[in-house]
């Protein structure tokens, strides 16, 4: 009986860069944009079958023209309602959230151009937390913002991470000084959307592995 042998030869391909310094082909991650070689049927979805709510949006300094443009973009996507979580904006000069009038004027512009399509959450200032009366002032501001059209409260992830009280102590998410704020939200019947902390890797050293 004849014996049959199958010889498997493995070829190892090596790529060499000839006449080019490897340092010249290094690039930042942001510059790396490879072209996909995957060949499959495409079924891009550009419009939702059913109207939906975008519960996490940050719209800054919404002008009348900006609202009109935004509503057209929402219509194209079949987005029924957008929630703007940045109702108070941000005052860079003060290093704090914006004024009550900032929120109130934005709500007026939205109601005049896109009533019911864009709703606004307010934000509270932690700048002087620890001072006598801070909790009462935060509650008062919250009540006034709801009267002016805010429908919820957004807490940014800086709470628990970067916000310190007047004594320099980090303010945790479950700080008792915030209890009156949560209680007032319940009393007013408004939701609270809170971004609590970040994944562990955000705290690790930044290097080639992170």
Order of helices and strands: EHEHEHEHE
- Overall body shape: globular
Q: Write down the CATH class.
A: Alpha Beta
Unreliable sequence segments: 5-19
Using only C-alpha atoms, the radius of gyration works out to: 27 Å
Q: What is the SS-derived class? A: alpha/beta
Number of domains: 1
- CATH homolog superfamily: Metal-dependent hydrolases
Number of strands: 5
Distance between the termini: 61 Å
Percent in strands: 5-15%
Q: According to CATH, what is the topology?
A: TIM Barrel
Largest sheet: 5 strands, parallel
Q: What's the rounded overall pLDDT mean?
A: 88
CATH-derived architecture: Alpha-Beta Barrel
Layout of strands and helices, then pairs:
Elements: E1 52-57, H1 64-77, E2 79-84, H2 100-114, E3 118-122, H3 134-147, E4 152-155, H4 179-188, E5 192-194
Parallel strand pairs: 1-2, 2-3, 3-4, 4-5
Helix pairs in contact: 1-2, 3-4
């Amino acid at each position: 009986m004849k014996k049959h042998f199958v010889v498997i030869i493995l070829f190892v391909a090596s790529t060499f860069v000839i006449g080019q310094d490897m340092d010249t082909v290094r690039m930042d991650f942001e510059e790396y944009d490879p072209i996909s070689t995957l060949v499959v049927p495409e079924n891009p979805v550009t419009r939702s079958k059913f109207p939906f709510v975008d519960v996490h949006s940050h719209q800054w300094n919404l002008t009348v023209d900006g609202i009109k443009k935004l509503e057209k973009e929402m219509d194209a996507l079949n987005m029924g309602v957008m929630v703007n979580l940045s109702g108070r904006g941000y005052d860079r000069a003060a290093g704090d959230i914006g004024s009550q009038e900032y929120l109130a004027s934005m709500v007026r512009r939205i109601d005049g151009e896109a009533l019911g399509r864009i709703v606004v959450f307010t934000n509270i200032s932690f700048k002087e937390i620890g001072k006598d009366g801070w909790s009462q002032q935060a509650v008062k501001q919250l009540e006034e913002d709801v009267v002016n059209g805010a429908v919820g409260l957004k807490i940014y992830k800086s709470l628990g991470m970067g916000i310190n009280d007047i004594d320099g102590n980090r303010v945790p998410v479950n700080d008792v000084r915030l209890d009156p704020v949560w209680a007032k939200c319940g009393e007013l019947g408004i939701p609270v959307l809170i971004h609590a902390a970040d994944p562990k890797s955000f705290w690790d050293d930044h290097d080639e592995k992170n």
